[in-house]
Amino acid sequence: MESLIRGNVLSHVPNGKQFCFPFVTGHWTSHSLGKQVLVAEPSVVPGRLCRDRPMDPVRVAVVGAGVMGLSTALCISKLVPGCSITVISDKFSPETTSDVAAGILIPHVYPDTPTHKQKQWFRETFDHLWAIANSADAREAAVHLVSGWQVYRSISTEVPFWADVVLGFRKMTEAELKKFPQHVFGHAFTTLKLEGSAYLPWLEKRVKESGAVTLTRRIEDLWELQPSFDIVVNCTGLGSRQLVGDLEIYPVKGQLLKVQAPWVKHFIRDGSGLTYIFPGVSNVILGGSRQSGDWNLTPDAEISRDILSRCCALEPSLHGAWDIKETVGLRPYRAGVRLQKELLARDGRRLPVVHHYGHGSGGFSMHWGTALEAARLLNECVQALRTPAPKPKI
Ligand SMILES: Cc1cc2nc3c(=O)[nH]c(=O)nc-3n(C[C@H](O)[C@H](O)[C@H](O)COP(=O)(O)OP(=O)(O)OC[C@H]3O[C@@H](n4cnc5c(N)ncnc54)[C@H](O)[C@@H]3O)c2cc1C
């Protein structure tokens, strides 16, 4: 079965979905693996298209619709004029890892990334979300300020790099520490929290308002997107292990409980990061667990009991929590976020790719900063496409 796609029209694709594919002329057809692929008309040749007609929109495919894919698509629409953007993903909210996250802004450290760069990403993300928290969109996006404590079993002189980005960072007082008889030291501060299952639809709505379109589809090989797109942004998180063969990325399974305990208003996090209580708009998140290399998405009842017992030790009032729901996600771990341009080439044809994935435990804390950087890398690719090839000297 083939479906014709022309210009800015709504078309039916073989999986029955309707979508708008702007500025593309082509058709869906089957390839040898039984998949449907988009084949552009011969007139659409990347590179040539832009050099011959410099004002044509540059066709950008963003693969992945977790927090990275959606925020990158939005940053591109704001920062890089003249692009038509299509977000392609096999899963959208509420089925991504980003929907599972606890959603607190407390950075995790990337050993391979300079601290000043991590601080810049965190500050940009904090400022972006704080603006939402201060706006009428706060309720819809489920973004809000939250104050609380990070507590330690030994005294630490280390000041985290993000201490002057969050609000009111200070050492806990003796009076505050009385609440935590197992702990001897702690920091108090105010940060931001969001709920992925609300923030992702909020982002997706803005992405669509910017003129971008979305398409539900699994990509087996980025080259499938050539020649229908001029540039691809890879935001597939853990999917990059298979999609681009990156063996540096691996899963760290995390289990959480979502409970009702509306009297809990302060966050509490053990300094090790393993046990935490994060109150949000619609529930309180209790965590957590870390199982490196585990791909199993089934919740473990024993781990749930352990999480509840550890959280009740920190906040005894949680014995009265109700409506306890278990949830599991796979953190896309890597020593450093991959933010990088790559030029794929086959048979004399080229496809520029911007990689943006590998945020591990800290994706929400960094997403807007890294998405801005991905948009800057994409802008460099766009400028290169728009630069006319030098004319040969006669
Ligand atoms: C239990 C848990 C708690 C967490 N808590 C926090 C927290 O409190 N604070 C924080 O900052 N971070 C937290 N994180 C981390 C955060 O959730 C991740 O870093 C972030 O969600 C990663 O986003 P992503 O968009 O890269 O990946 P994902 O959300 O996994 O999105 C990847 C997208 O790519 C698509 N995709 C993959 N492969 C393909 C393919 N071949 N073809 C088409 N589409 C494809 C997927 O369908 C999906 O849409 C937590 C994570 C977990 C699991």
UniProtKB/TrEMBL annotation:
Keywords: Cytoplasm, FAD, Flavoprotein, Oxidoreductase, Peroxisome. The keyword Signal does not apply. It catalyses: D-aspartate + O2 + H2O = oxaloacetate + H2O2 + NH4(+); D-glutamate + O2 + H2O = 2-oxoglutarate + H2O2 + NH4(+). One of its GO terms (cellular component) is cytosol. It is found in: Cytoplasm, Cytosol; Peroxisome matrix. Its EC number is 1.4.3.1. Gene3D superfamilies: D-Amino Acid Oxidase, subunit A, domain 2, NAD(P)-binding Rossmann-like Domain. Its cofactor is FAD. GO terms for molecular function: D-aspartate oxidase activity; FAD binding. GO terms for biological process: D-amino acid catabolic process; L-aspartate catabolic process. Residues 59-377 form the FAD dependent oxidoreductase domain. The keyword Oxidoreductase applies. InterPro entries: D-amino_acid_oxidase_CS, DAO, FAD-dep_OxRdtase. FAD binds at T97, S98, T236. D-dopa binds at Y276, R331. Pfam families: DAO. Selectively catalyzes the oxidative deamination of acidic amino acids. Suppresses the level of D-aspartate in the brain, an amino acid that can act as an agonist for glutamate receptors. Protects the organism from the toxicity of D-amino acids. May also function in the intestine. Belongs to the DAMOX/DASOX family. This is D-aspartate oxidase.
